[in-house]
Amino acid sequence: MNFTSFVQGSQLTVALTGEIDHHCARDYMQRIAAKIDAYTPKVCVLDFREVSFMDSSGIAVVINAQRRMAQIEGQLRLEHIGPQPMKVFSASGIDRIIKMEEGVK
Predict the structure, then answer these.
(1) How many CA atoms within 13 Å lie on the side-chain side of 13?
(2) Quick count: other Cβ atoms within 10 Å of Cβ 59?
(3) For residues 73 and 95, which has the higher predicted lDDT (pLDDT)?
(4) Inter-residue long-range contacts of 89-97, CB under 8 Å, 24+ positions, other chains counted
Protein backbone atom coordinates (compact mmCIF):
# COMPACT_ATOMS: atom_id res chain seq x y z
CA MET A 1 0.00 0.00 0.00
CA ASN A 2 1.36 3.31 -1.05
CA PHE A 3 0.07 6.70 -2.07
CA THR A 4 1.23 10.19 -2.76
CA SER A 5 -0.64 13.37 -2.04
CA PHE A 6 -0.35 17.04 -2.80
CA VAL A 7 -2.27 20.21 -2.10
CA GLN A 8 -2.98 22.81 -4.74
CA GLY A 9 -4.98 25.77 -3.53
CA SER A 10 -7.91 24.35 -1.59
CA GLN A 11 -7.75 20.92 -3.24
CA LEU A 12 -6.09 17.85 -1.77
CA THR A 13 -5.28 15.12 -4.29
CA VAL A 14 -4.47 11.63 -3.06
CA ALA A 15 -3.07 9.31 -5.73
CA LEU A 16 -3.73 5.71 -4.70
CA THR A 17 -1.62 2.85 -6.05
CA GLY A 18 -1.64 -0.92 -6.30
CA GLU A 19 -4.40 -3.04 -4.83
CA ILE A 20 -7.04 -1.91 -2.36
CA ASP A 21 -8.30 -4.86 -0.36
CA HIS A 22 -8.99 -5.84 3.25
CA HIS A 23 -5.26 -6.07 3.97
CA CYS A 24 -4.62 -2.38 3.41
CA ALA A 25 -8.02 -0.66 3.63
CA ARG A 26 -7.77 0.37 7.29
CA ASP A 27 -4.33 1.91 6.72
CA TYR A 28 -5.62 3.81 3.67
CA MET A 29 -8.58 5.10 5.69
CA GLN A 30 -6.35 6.33 8.53
CA ARG A 31 -3.78 7.95 6.26
CA ILE A 32 -6.35 9.68 4.05
CA ALA A 33 -8.24 10.93 7.13
CA ALA A 34 -4.99 12.31 8.54
CA LYS A 35 -4.34 14.23 5.30
CA ILE A 36 -7.88 15.63 5.29
CA ASP A 37 -7.55 16.67 8.93
CA ALA A 38 -4.15 18.28 8.32
CA TYR A 39 -5.17 20.33 5.25
CA THR A 40 -8.98 20.76 5.62
CA PRO A 41 -9.44 21.06 1.85
CA LYS A 42 -12.60 22.27 0.12
CA VAL A 43 -12.18 19.41 -2.37
CA CYS A 44 -10.48 16.05 -1.91
CA VAL A 45 -9.73 14.05 -5.04
CA LEU A 46 -8.97 10.35 -4.80
CA ASP A 47 -7.05 9.49 -7.97
CA PHE A 48 -7.44 5.81 -8.92
CA ARG A 49 -5.15 5.98 -11.99
CA GLU A 50 -2.64 3.50 -10.51
CA VAL A 51 -5.11 1.17 -8.76
CA SER A 52 -4.84 -2.24 -10.40
CA PHE A 53 -7.41 -4.06 -8.24
CA MET A 54 -10.05 -3.15 -5.70
CA ASP A 55 -12.54 -5.24 -3.73
CA SER A 56 -15.41 -4.03 -1.57
CA SER A 57 -12.91 -2.75 1.00
CA GLY A 58 -12.24 0.10 -1.41
CA ILE A 59 -15.83 1.22 -0.94
CA ALA A 60 -15.17 1.53 2.79
CA VAL A 61 -12.10 3.68 2.04
CA VAL A 62 -14.20 6.00 -0.13
CA ILE A 63 -17.13 6.19 2.33
CA ASN A 64 -14.72 7.01 5.16
CA ALA A 65 -13.17 9.84 3.11
CA GLN A 66 -16.66 11.08 2.15
CA ARG A 67 -17.72 11.23 5.80
CA ARG A 68 -14.54 13.08 6.76
CA MET A 69 -15.07 15.62 3.96
CA ALA A 70 -18.73 16.07 4.96
CA GLN A 71 -17.60 16.92 8.50
CA ILE A 72 -15.60 19.86 7.16
CA GLU A 73 -18.28 20.73 4.57
CA GLY A 74 -16.04 19.73 1.69
CA GLN A 75 -16.53 17.67 -1.44
CA LEU A 76 -15.02 14.31 -2.41
CA ARG A 77 -14.36 13.34 -6.03
CA LEU A 78 -13.05 10.12 -7.51
CA GLU A 79 -11.03 10.41 -10.71
CA HIS A 80 -9.30 8.25 -13.32
CA ILE A 81 -11.10 5.09 -12.33
CA GLY A 82 -10.08 2.03 -14.31
CA PRO A 83 -12.49 -0.68 -15.49
CA GLN A 84 -12.08 -3.13 -12.58
CA PRO A 85 -12.55 -0.59 -9.74
CA MET A 86 -15.42 0.98 -11.71
CA LYS A 87 -17.25 -2.37 -11.73
CA VAL A 88 -17.01 -2.48 -7.93
CA PHE A 89 -18.22 1.12 -7.60
CA SER A 90 -21.07 0.61 -10.08
CA ALA A 91 -22.27 -2.51 -8.29
CA SER A 92 -22.37 -0.58 -5.01
CA GLY A 93 -24.30 2.41 -6.35
CA ILE A 94 -21.77 4.80 -4.85
CA ASP A 95 -21.85 6.84 -8.05
CA ARG A 96 -25.20 8.24 -6.89
CA ILE A 97 -23.64 9.99 -3.89
CA ILE A 98 -20.07 10.79 -4.99
CA LYS A 99 -18.90 12.51 -8.16
CA MET A 100 -16.88 10.03 -10.23
CA GLU A 101 -14.81 10.29 -13.39
CA GLU A 102 -14.16 7.07 -15.24
CA GLY A 103 -11.10 6.35 -17.33
CA VAL A 104 -7.39 6.69 -16.97
CA LYS A 105 -5.83 9.78 -18.47
Answers:
(1) 11
(2) 19
(3) 73
(4) 89/58, 89/59, 89/62, 92/56, 92/59, 94/59, 94/62, 94/63, 97/66
User: Which residue from 30, 22, 100, 27 is spatially nearest to 65, judged by alpha carbons?
Assistant: 30
Cβ(74)–Cβ(41) below 8 Å: yes
Q: How far apart are CA 46 and CA 62, in angstroms?
A: 8
Whole-prediction pTM: 0.94
